[in-house]
Amino acid sequence: MRRRTVLAGLPALATAGGAAGAALGAAGCAPAAGSAATVALPPQLRGAEPPVAAELVALDTVHGRPPGRAELAALAAAVGAAEPDGGGIALGAAAFGPAAAGGDGRGSGTGGSGGTGAGGGTEVRPRRLRDMPAFPGDLLDPARTHGQVLVQLGGRDPAQARERAARVLAALPGWRPRWRAAGHRPDSRVVDGRGLARNPFHFTEGFGNPDGERATAERTLVRPGDGEPEWAAGGSYQVVRLVQIAAELWDRDSLAAQERVIGRRRDGRWLDGTPATERPDFAADPAGRRTPLDSHVRRAAPDRRRPPPLVRRSYSHPEGLLFSCFQRDPVTGFEAVQHRLAGEAMATYLLTVGGGYFFVPPPGDTWLRAFA
Ligand code: HEM
Fold first, then answer.
1. Which of 41, 77, 84, 207 is most buried, judging by how many CB atoms fall within 10 Å of its CB?
2. pTM of the model as a whole
3. Whose CA is nearest to atom 37 of ligand 1?
4. CA 142 to ligand 1 center in whole angstroms
5. Residue 277, SS3 per DSSP
6. What's the CA gap between 312 and 308, in Å, rounded?
7. CB under 8 Å to 369, separation ≥6 — which residues?
8. Which of 121, 66, 136, 71 is closest to 96 using CA atoms?
9. For residue 80, how far is its CA from the centre of ligand 1 (angstroms)?
10. Are 144 and 242 in contact (CB under 8 A)?
11. Which residues, at least 6 apart from 239, have a Cβ–Cβ distance to it below 8 Å?
């Protein structure tokens, strides 16, 4: 298995050595005693550039009950065998048993509510893992939303990703696909440490992401002390949104109008002339004359000194965008941005029909012990 470690000079991650180290140890690759804490990124987050093609398959057990440790171990092994380098799995709320009745919508783990099924009485569900709610304007199709597990397989082209997904499914008759989606990244490339691609609106996407694995780890990985179950340290919340786009409507607009909707030029440069990899000064444009106040980037990241704490790794999809992002906390990450995007100029062109909230376990296999 390819293993990239991020040297964590990160103070807040310094104590992650225990959890991440345990995971590494389980994979037969324990860090040297006394070494600085290291953090291994889950496969879905490794490398500056995501695989050019990906196949996402949400699965449920055939028996309908939450999966047990043996079923999850077999699934993880099948994914690892199909794609040793970048295939990954993520757990939906349903993998942990029924959601807490009358809960606060931030998962379980307090007051003995819910999330106990898989752990045989232990609180194991990541605290902020719940079913993805419908946001204003969403039209979620239940047949394309949620899932006990999300399997992600990459490939050098769509055919390879599809073939890997077929291999995983063939090895696991105990699981049935709930929904699946194929994605690809046209013009995928790395510039200044960031993976860029052309999105279905023909715009360059990826500039707002961090420029390296250390910063990626900082924005995405759960740390000890986050109030999460111990096993979850080093894992990450994944949010997937299947977004349909009104391509014909979009393509009728002039390029200048499109750029005002996004808030950047097609190639990523800012509307006030600031180079793509630098920070524009929105404070100097309070009325939004250069970069409109309802543009996507201005809503998504209004304070250039404090970028949203998430990392996007999205794919183009035949219907639009297979949006995917990773974060330490879906409430302060994805949801905070999504709420700010309500009413953005781009909303006219978008309809979210599926996806889900998932939790990517830390590398290694010690997380499986959380399951009965
Ligand atoms: C079809 C849907 C979407 C399209 C076409 C789209 C497109 C873009 C583009 C072109 C950029 C500018 C380049 C870049 O920084 O990557 C961008 C930035 C960004 N988008 Fe989206 N996006 C979509 C949905 C979303 C959603 C659902 C979220 C999160 C809730 C989101 C969050 C962000 C963030 C955080 C940035 C970076 C802003 C910055 O730091 O400047 N986007 N998006």
1. 41
2. 0.89
3. 208
4. 25
5. coil
6. 10
7. 69, 231
8. 66
9. 30
10. yes
11. 132, 323, 324, 325, 326, 327, 330, 333, 334, 355, 356, 357, 358
**341 CA closest ligand 1 atom index:** 30
Which residues partner with 366 through β-bridges? Answer: none
Residues 123 and 65: their CA atoms lie apart, in Å, by 18
For the chain, the farthest-separated pair of C-alpha atoms sits apart, in whole angstroms, at 61
Residue nearest atom 12 in ligand 1 by C-alpha distance = 205
The DSSP secondary structure of 234-251, one letter per residue, reads T-EEEEEEEEEE-HHHHH
CA of 266 to the centre of ligand 1 (A): 13
Distance of CA 3 to the CA centre of its chain: 19
Secondary structure E strands in 200-299: 204-205, 236-245
Rounded to 10 deg, the angle between the 158-171 and 69-82 helix axes is 150
First to last CA, the chain: 26
Q: Which of 22-31, 76-85, 93-102, 158-167 has the lowest mean pLDDT?
A: 22-31
Cα 73 to averaged position of ligand 1 atoms, centre (Å): 35
Q: Would the CB of 58 count as within 6 Å of ligand 1?
A: no
For residue 262, the number of C-alpha atoms closer than 13 Å in the C-beta half-sphere is 24
Three-class secondary structure of residue 1 per DSSP: coil
Q: Of all protein residues, whose CA lies closest to atom 19 belonging to ligand 1? A: 297
The response to whether residue 309 sits with its C-beta less than 6 Å from ligand 1 reads no
pLDDT tens for each residue of 319-350: 999 999 999 999 999 999 999 999 999 999 99
Closest ligand 1 atom, residue 325 Cα: 29
Q: What is the pLDDT of residues 188-232, one digit of tens each?
A: 999 999 999 999 999 999 999 999 999 999 999 999 999 999 999
Q: Let me know: does 308 contact 219? Beta carbons within 8 Å.
A: no
How many Cβ atoms sit within 10 Å of the Cβ of residue 156?
10
Q: Which is the closest atom of ligand 1 to the Cα of 349?
A: 1
What would the pLDDT profile of 141-153 be if each residue is shown by its tens digit?
999 999 999 999 9
C-alpha torsion 91→97→102→103, nearest 10: -40
- Which atom of ligand 1 lies at the shortest distance from residue 320's CA? 1
Ligand 1: centre distance to CA 314 (Å): 9
Q: Which atom of ligand 1 is nearest to the CA of 199?
A: 5
Rounded CA-CA distance 245/319 in Å is 7
